[in-house]
Specification:
mainly alpha, about 70% helix
C-alpha cells in the first residue's frame, strides 16, 4: 500500500517539474536558463523538459527503470540547483529558501530508492500471462 503512495508522490513531483521546465522552454527557448553561467547546467535544465515527463511515465507504469531514473534525475537536479546558486550562501542565504522544496523532494526520492526498487522488482518479476502459440499449419495443410 505504501508503494502506491510513494509512486503517486513521485509522479506528482515529476509532473510539476515537467510543467515548470516545459513552460520555461516554451517561453524563453533554449536560453531559458541563461541566468546560470555554466552551459552544462543550462543544458541540463533544458533537458529536464524531456526527462521529467519521461520519469513520470516510467514511474506511472511502475517500471524499475523509472525508479532509478527518478533518483538519478533528482540527485543531479538538486546538485545543479545548489551549485548554480552557491554564490547566495555568502551573499544572501535567504535567497536559497526556494531550493527547499526541490531539496526535500530529492531527499524523498533518494530515501525511497532501494525500498521502492525492491518492491517494484518483486511485483514486476512475476510471470506474465502469454498467449498460446498459433496452431501448427503443417498438420492442416493438404499435400
Amino acid at each position: 500500500m505504501w508503494t502506491r503512495w510513494v509512486l503517486a508522490v513521485y509522479v506528482i513531483g515529476f509532473l510539476e517539474g515537467a510543467c515548470v521546465h516545459i513552460l520555461d522552454v516554451a517561453r524563453d527557448g533554449i536560453h531559458a536558463y541563461a541566468s546560470f553561467p555554466q552551459v552544462p547546467l543550462q543544458a541540463f535544465f533544458v533537458s529536464l523538459a524531456i526527462l521529467d515527463p519521461l520519469v513520470a511515465v516510467l514511474v506511472g507504469l511502475v517500471r524499475r527503470e523509472g525508479v532509478w531514473l527518478a533518483s538519478a534525475v533528482m540527485v543531479t537536479d538538486v546538485f545543479a540547483n545548489w551549485w548554480g546558486n552557491r554564490h547566495w550562501l555568502q551573499n544572501d542565504p535567504v535567497k536559497l529558501l526556494p531550493l527547499l522544496p526541490i531539496t526535500l523532494f530529492g531527499l524523498f526520492v533518494v530515501a525511497f530508492l532501494i525500498p521502492l526498487h525492491r518492491t517494484v522488482t518483486r511485483t514486476t518479476g512475476r510471470p506474465q500471462v502469454t498467449l498460446p502459440p498459433p496452431p501448427d499449419d503443417s498438420r492442416t495443410a493438404q499435400p
